[in-house]
Design a protein that fits this description.
The protein is an alpha+beta fold. The protein has three domains: about 10-15 and about 25-55 and about 360-595, no CATH class; about 95-290, Cytochrome Bc1 Complex, Chain C; about 635-765, Immunoglobulin-like (Sandwich), CATH 2.60.40. The protein is built from 20 helices and 23 strands. The strands form eight sheets. It has a five-stranded mixed β-sheet. A five-stranded antiparallel β-sheet has the order 18-17-20-21-23. Helix 17 links the parallel strand 11 (about 520-525) and strand 12 (about 560-565). About 40% of the residues are buried.
Length: about 775
């Protein structure tokens, strides 16, 4: 194989040789390209390039292996990794958020507000085809939104895309997930069915434990219902629901604000498929409205959406502490992980430096990853590094203070750099590097591995494989290291790992062929699954001559191939054969190396059908898992609930022959036996405060009395009734004070007097 002038080559033996010297073409310093760069013979080149790579944490590798084990059968069933929905979870979540917003608007335009009105609105929707379909689509899309958001977070976690400049995207994503969940809970609250009743129970418990406002909230709910103004409460909940949706949209903007060319929506086939599947699900599986809320009963079993309402079975249960405590810990750790788990490079210890460099110039496992650096003298101002950077870490500015013929120069914003190395592969003029490592070290590593392969197969074929550090941590790990000796079909294979395949300059692959390699292969991540967003895509475009810097035309059909697979399919990629096409000139099929680099081979209609059928199956499982009849342990009891919106009301002079003095005891008596008692100063009760209390009691038939009694034995009876209570029943004692038309009546608003009052009525006469 011929070599460029002055190019180191490998002959049939094992020694690197340099062709006889010739008169080189004189080039200006800034015009050096990857075709011209000469080896620096650096003994630390391998360590320096390894210092560019992320050392994957064991827990991240473990989590990724779990994900890959699920992805592999999905790719196999679909027949292509181009249609794996797990690679598009972020953009699918965005599209689902859009669907939730549109369907939610259509639903609530015709919604009525109030305890009875809200429930009847839902019942009315169920009688209309379009309304019930939109309601079902809204529900299914909301559940799918949480699922895809969590899957997206999981993938971001095991890819370790949460450190450095990406901390904002991670933190806003965590907050975004919590806000989406809370928005869903408020949506269920608006319906005022038995689910909404349990949400109210949970919310009151929350207020009791962490605020002094539980009594005021319960009093307001009861007062609005008595006045016929419950629409105000539901309008307030709706406002919160809409506000949370807008906050979600705002956090989504913050989530992507640091990205260049953020993807707002999934590929068109996925948008069409999702829309069709959701509409069909809405038609085939319309939602059922549950029983209306009944505050005199605790519903025993409720059909729950376990994605949003998972907490309801834990109400009043000891396990609730563990549930919420665990969620709090997970959330706190998630928010802190960008700073707790720091990135580590793969570099060897500094003692390996033997070329006179300081130890700080050789990256170690305890050092942070190196950031982008521009070699000013070599920069031609071509702008490709700034264009290709997915994180906007490079900017083109006008040159100042030199006499270069180039007007622009690249400037690095290292605070935005994630050390992906895509800019290195985008610069044809060797002017971009990471840290203090000279770019020529990448060529030195290539020559070193080429020599190793030739030493193992002096008379055989040699293949160089470039792959990313993600593949190197999983599928390629067994082939990496000094003792690895990989042979594939009698071909000696050497693997070179880089931060991302986008780091590999396209023309360096052609130059490797000229230096003695028989084949060069790129093994990168599948479409839309690159740890660095666009690295695999840019590399594919460069190698197929559709993006600058293009692979030189003379290399277009040379044995340079690319395989875009998941990290656990690395071995399969090593055995992948080039695409073969019919050559009309020779009349036979021959390898088509240009086609063998493409990331998006044509798909068949069967691939789409299978992918959307798989999506429908997943949605079907989701539908059944979010409508499960769940027994509520908290309903297996009988309770008495006492509500006095205004504690000063019992002291109305027309209702008490004398005002209570000193310490006043509030007592709930069942057949004369006190089951609840609480003491207050009389002055405190007369300060017009709300009071709310709950007491678990035994089922049975009783004469129930709620009374206030002072130290002198003076007594005001606020409630007295004969009641029969079973398991799940609620004895509601709501005292609102005297009605305006009472005028000294014997009985008014369930108020009774003790037996010393002239208007006392014996219990058997009431």
């Amino acid at each position: 194989m011929s070599a460029n002038e002055g190019e180191p080559v490998l002959d049939e033996g094992t020694e690197l040789k340099t062709p006889p010297p010739t008169t080189p073409t004189k080039k200006r310093h800034h015009e050096i390209t990857w075709n011209d760069i000469e080896s620096a013979n650096s003994p630390t080149a391998e360590a320096e390039i390894r210092g560019w790579e992320l050392e994957a944490r064991p827990w991240a590798v473990f989590l990724e292996r779990i994900a890959l084990a699920i992805e592999r059968p999905a790719n196999k069933i679909i027949g292509s990794n181009q249609l794996n929905p797990l690679y598009h979870t972020g953009t699918i979540a965005t599209f689902l958020l859009f669907i939730v917003g549109v369907t939610g608007t259509l639903i609530f335009v015709f919604f009525h507000y109030g305890y009875e009105e809200s429930y009847q609105s839902v019942v009315g929707y169920d009688r209309q085809f379009i309304a019930r379909t939109m309601r079902a689509v809204h529900r299914f899309a909301s559940d799918a939104l949480v699922i895809t958001t969590l899957l997206h977070a999981y993938r971001t976690l095991f890819m370790e895309r949460f450190r450095g400049p990406r901390w904002l995207a991670w933190v806003t994503g965590v907050v975004l997930t919590a806000v989406i969940w809370l928005a869903g809970v408020t949506g269920y609250w608006l319906v005022w069915d038995v689910r909404a009743q349990w949400i109210t129970e949970w919310f009151v418990r929350l207020l009791e434990q962490f605020t002094p406002w539980s009594a005021a909230f319960v009093a307001k709910m009861a007062t609005l219902g008595l006045e016929g103004n419950s629409w105000k409460l539901f309008l307030f909940i709706l406002g919160g629901h809409i506000l949370l949706f807008l906050i979600t949209a705002g956090f989504f903007y913050l989530h992507i604000v640091r990205l260049k060319r953020p993807r707002w929506y999934p590929p068109v086939p996925w948008m069409i498929g999702l829309t069709v599947v959701l509409l069909l699900a809405g038609v085939i599986f319309p939602l059922r409205h549950l029983a209306p809320a009944d505050l005199s009963q605790l519903p025993q079993t409720v059909n729950l959406d376990l994605i949003y309402l998972f907490f309801i079975p834990f109400i009043e249960q000891p396990a609730a502490v563990w549930l919420w405590g665990g969620l709090f810990v997970v959330t706190a750790v998630s928010l802190a992980i960008p700073w707790v788990s720091r990135a580590r490079s793969k570099g060897v210890p500094p003692a390996a430096a033997s070329n006179g460099k300081s130890q700080d110039d050789v990256y170690t496992g305890s050092c942070p990853l190196p950031r982008v650096q521009i070699i000013d003298d070599l920069c031609t101002g071509c702008s490709m590094c700034a264009v290709d950077c997915p994180y906007d870490a490079l900017e083109m500015v006008e040159r100042e203070g030199d006499h270069s013929q180039h007007k622009l120069i690249a400037v690095a914003h290292i605070d935005k750099c994630v050390s992906c190395g895509i800019c290195v592969g985008s610069c044809e003029y060797v002017a971009v590097t990471l840290g203090h490592t000279p770019p020529v070290s990448l060529w030195d590593v290539t020559l070193a591995h080429l020599q190793k392969a030739r030493n193992r197969a002096p008379q055989g074929k040699v293949r160089l494989v470039y792959t990313c550090d993600r593949h190197a941590a999983i599928g390629a790990k067994q082939y990496m290291g000094n003792n690895a000796a990989l042979m594939v079909d009698d071909t000696a294979v050497e693997i070179i790992s880089v931060p991302c395949v986008g780091t590999v300059p396209p023309n360096m692959t052609g130059r490797a062929l000229q230096a003695g390699a028989d084949e060069v292969q790129i093994i990168g991540c599948p479409p839309a699954d690159c740890r660095n967003r666009e690295g695999n895509y840019w590399e594919e475009r460069r190698l197929t001559r559709r993006r600058v810097p293009r692979l030189k035309k003379s290399y277009a059909n040379d044995p340079i191939t690319a395989v875009w697979v998941a990290p656990n399919e690395f071995e399969k990629a090593l055995h992948t054969q080039p695409v073969r096409t019919f050559n009309e000139e020779t009349g036979r099929e021959e390898p088509n190396y240009l086609a063998s680099r493409r990331m998006f081979p044509p798909l068949k209609w069967q691939n789409y059908v299978i992918a959307f059928a798989l999506l429908a199956v997943i949605l079907l499982i989701q539908i059944f898992l979010t409508d499960i009849p769940v027994p509520i342990p908290a309903a297996d009891r009988t309770v008495a609930r006492i509500l006095i919106p205004n504690t000063a009301a019992p002291f109305h002079p027309e209702l008490a022959y004398s005002l209570l003095q000193g310490e006043v005891e509030m007592r709930l008596e069942l057949d004369g036996e006190a089951v609840f008692s609480q003491t207050f100063p009389a002055e405190e009760l007369q300060q017009s405060k709300p009071f709310y209390a709950e007491k678990e009691i035994s089922p049975g038939s009783y004469h129930a009395v709620l009374a206030l009694q002072d130290e002198d034995g003076d007594r005001i009876v606020l409630y007295g009734e004969n009641v029969t209570l079973g398991t799940g029943d609620v004895l509601r004692i709501n005292y609102f004070g005297p009605a305006p038309s009472c005028d000294g009546a014997i009985r008014c608003n369930n108020i009774y007097y003790d037996d010393r009052h002239p208007d006392y009525i014996p219990a058997n006469e009431r």
